Amino acid sequence: MSRESELKEKLKEWIIKNSRSEKVNEINNATKILEEKIVTSLQIMELIVYLEQLTGRPVNPDQLKPGAFSSIEHIYDVFYEGK
Amino acid sequence: MIYSDRLNLVSEKLSATSVKKYNNPYTTIEWPEQLDDKALCFSKDMISISRTPLFQDLTEEQVLKLALYEAVNFFSLNISGERELIAGLSKRLYKNYSPEMTEYIHHFLDEENKHMVWFGTFSEKYAGKVYQDKKIVFPRSYEEGEEDFLFFTKIVIFEEIVDRYNYLMAGDESLDPLVRQIHHQHHVDESRHLAFGREIVCHLYKEFSPRWSEETRDGISDYIKNYMVSTWKEYFNPDVYVDAGITDEAYELRELAWNSMSGFRKEISHKCVEFFQKKEFIKGEPEL
Q1: Which of A64, B163, B259, B263 counts the highest number of beta carbons within 10 A?
Q2: Could you tell me the pTM of the whole model?
Q3: What ipTM, to 2 d.p.?
Q4: Looking at the partner chain, which of A34, A52, A59 has a beta carbon nearest the beta carbon of B138?
Q5: What gap in Å lies between CA B14 and CA B64, rounded to an integer?
């Protein structure tokens, strides 16, 4: 498994563990996790802590662009690829 | 306009007390150049990792350092909570609230600003930092009265927890006298803020909830319970463990600490949870 696939899989596992949505088992990397209410705004703080753990870099929420957490694909691009 | 005779009366009484207890934040507290290096800045049994095996192995010196950063984290999360509170209260000035309530909101704002002066000064002067919060708020739509109800409910949750910490630490003789004084001063003002918060959430719920759909009421119940959990999560900051130099595995330690303090969180939040259940704002228990 490539590093990219491994990280996306870890993010998916985190979402499955923490989501309260019944739709969580149907998600893929492109699923709109906020729009579909699979992850809530209150869970973002914990997701940020998890991303800091995975990347080893601090995250400043004030510098994030809108949509940074829209999908696993997008989270990977923003936090690992710096897009 | 949002008001009731009772809310106006409570607001008038609280404003009168705020005027009577008015203080100058720059003279109320004197800041020594250095803290007492033998005194704790945070109660030992309230330190987030105090119930993990690692804590038992720490030296006295390590505990003192950890206690300083736990205090800075506590003051930092107060700053971020009060920043949000001040923004929300300012937005409501001279809008939908009675003149009596508006007058009290002015005191509320003034007092929260003073607290931030104390918390910020302590953190910057003795630790050289304020921890940044990780909260993000996404815009959403609300039913009538729902946004105000949730805003004041979040204040009650935040302040109920903080005030228990203030009360307990103000009375802890093992703490540095400066730390105890900050907690004491905060507690004195906070008891008024809590009285106002509890009155207003009851009024808003009574006024608006009969018009809310069942889905909205269920959503509110879930939101309040989840907000309590996410508020508590901020008390477990991995950066504190790194800054105190006690571990290289701060995130793993955080998880251990979180799991070991469930009973403590329930105890501290007990009154608040009971209040929400009694008023039927929430169904069931938050997962503390």
Answers
A1: B163
A2: 0.94
A3: 0.90
A4: A34
A5: 38
